[in-house]
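Q: I have 352 residues here and want to know how they pack in 3D. Can you give me a structure?
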Amino acid sequence: MPNIKRFEAVNGECVYKGDTITLHWEIENYTAAYVNGKLIRTENQDSCKETIKSDKNFCLKVINGLHVVSSDISVRVVEKPNIQFSSTTKKLKQGKHEHATLQWNIDNAISALLITNGKEKSIDLNGREDVSPLETSTYALKVKGLDGKKYFNRRLTLSVLPESEIEFKADKLYSLPRIPVSVSWNVRHANSVELIGYGMVPNKGEKIIEIGKDTSLVLKVTDEFGVQSKKLNIKILPLPVIKSIMVPTPQITKNIVVQNQLTHIQAAVSIHPDFMVLADNFQGMKLPAFEDLHIKLHGQPQFSEIPIFHQPQIDIVKKTWWRKIADRFIDLNNRYKNHIYGTLWKTKRTKN
């Protein structure tokens, strides 16, 4: 008498569409065995596998002579959960306190959980939630399928990353033609750096460029958030053109002739070349020296009892001063003459 000790679906009697199930059996005292009419050819075979897409019955039939024993299994096929889990962005800028919105839409499920940093909370099968992580974080949905046993998971990671920092400068923003300009850069947190017109460059570097006209140098930086660029505007100044400069040498000479006439004076007096010596004799008046006035006296004037006509010659070096100096000299000469006359008059009166 044939005997079926066990016949079962290892995966359970409710499976998901497209799953492969395993049928397992234990039989004895048989000459032939069939599963859904398919002969089990190996005596030691005790299982088989099959992929199913819909509900299905499986029948194990064992024969020994005229005796037939059978066993049936019904396997129910259900749809797998359809889980849509997304975020408005998957990258956030570090230190900017940015936020993202998690969104989910779940079909063919009994329930769902949202797991954040190891903490679970029950959620509706359709919903959304704003999050603002300070560091890279992973969020997960834990969904219970229609079989009531199996869970399906979906994960989503939000990366919190530093934005690229760009330093781009030149040693001068104004230059002359064919005068080299040194540009340097230092870029942090970048995937690639390109100096437009000069190709890809390392994140930190320097380049000397000879520029002949107004130019805009652009540093293009690619990071996790896209492309940034920084520009330097270099202005080239025109070279000055000097055709000729002709400045005539000024010839400034003025000769002043001052004539002094003294008669019947019983004294001999000499004029010192430096008027400063005579300053105290002219009513306390502070007089400039000839050297300061750029005046030169030629010879020493003398006064005697015989009428004397003397012409001290004065060379005036500076044109803008000559008239003032001439007037001053004439004034001083008159004062000096008056002083001499006054002294002689007093002397004569005393003798008389």
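Q: Anything worth noting?
A: Residues 254-338 form one domain. The chain has four domains: 3-78, 82-161, 165-236, 254-338.
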